[in-house]
């Protein structure tokens, strides 16, 4: 198992990404065709920045990635990435205005995970809370036809996330990338082709 983990860790170092998680995004993009040149992408919980870098490669010089995280990062981003050290869920007036000015977005990404406690039920509940917060942002900031990706630790209350996603998107798929650690409980849910803000909320 250590060799498996080291493969992606060392690959990330060789390719100058701050974390191995970029390969999860690359797998998601290859399977679902999420990212295209010229798109606007909102990356929630972006630090240290691997997903933002991966998204920036795909949207190109004429695209935009707005990367948001409470934590700072010293990652050197290309010009098409704007990093904001913000709690996006706090909904500050200034940051909401920035989101409105830059949006709507073609894709909203969330690779967020809670600080784990080692207690499975607690970690699953906190992960669900983050996923629901990310979904709320996506429903407000996605353009019709846009896509949403969210990470969650699987648990018994998963329908609390899936029901509103199925109401808001034409298609909802689950996916665990090969680059995820085999022992990880994480799964990614992908909402494709957002119906728009006037769609029934489903909750």
Automatic annotation (TrEMBL):
<dbReference type="GO" id="GO:0005737">
    <property type="term" value="C:cytoplasm"/>
</dbReference>
<dbReference type="InterPro" id="IPR050082">
    <property type="entry name" value="RNA_methyltr_RlmE"/>
</dbReference>
<comment type="similarity">
    <text>Belongs to the class I-like SAM-binding methyltransferase superfamily. RNA methyltransferase RlmE family.</text>
</comment>
<keyword id="KW-0949">S-adenosyl-L-methionine</keyword>
<dbReference type="Pfam" id="PF01728">
    <property type="entry name" value="FtsJ"/>
</dbReference>
<comment type="function">
    <text>Specifically methylates the uridine in position 2552 of 23S rRNA at the 2'-O position of the ribose in the fully assembled 50S ribosomal subunit.</text>
</comment>
<feature type="active site" description="Proton acceptor">
    <location>
        <position position="151"/>
    </location>
</feature>
<dbReference type="InterPro" id="IPR002877">
    <property type="entry name" value="RNA_MeTrfase_FtsJ_dom"/>
</dbReference>
<keyword id="KW-0808">Transferase</keyword>
<feature type="binding site">
    <location>
        <position position="49"/>
    </location>
    <ligand>
        <name>S-adenosyl-L-methionine</name>
    </ligand>
</feature>
<keyword id="KW-0489">Methyltransferase</keyword>
<feature type="domain" description="Ribosomal RNA methyltransferase FtsJ">
    <location>
        <begin position="17"/>
        <end position="194"/>
    </location>
</feature>
<feature type="binding site">
    <location>
        <position position="51"/>
    </location>
    <ligand>
        <name>S-adenosyl-L-methionine</name>
    </ligand>
</feature>
<keyword id="KW-0963">Cytoplasm</keyword>
<protein>
    <recommendedName>
        <fullName>Ribosomal RNA large subunit methyltransferase E</fullName>
        <ecNumber>2.1.1.166</ecNumber>
    </recommendedName>
</protein>
<dbReference type="InterPro" id="IPR015507">
    <property type="entry name" value="rRNA-MeTfrase_E"/>
</dbReference>
<dbReference type="InterPro" id="IPR029063">
    <property type="entry name" value="SAM-dependent_MTases_sf"/>
</dbReference>
<feature type="binding site">
    <location>
        <position position="69"/>
    </location>
    <ligand>
        <name>S-adenosyl-L-methionine</name>
    </ligand>
</feature>
<keyword id="KW-0698">rRNA processing</keyword>
<feature type="binding site">
    <location>
        <position position="111"/>
    </location>
    <ligand>
        <name>S-adenosyl-L-methionine</name>
    </ligand>
</feature>
<dbReference type="GO" id="GO:0008650">
    <property type="term" value="F:rRNA (uridine-2'-O-)-methyltransferase activity"/>
</dbReference>
<feature type="binding site">
    <location>
        <position position="87"/>
    </location>
    <ligand>
        <name>S-adenosyl-L-methionine</name>
    </ligand>
</feature>
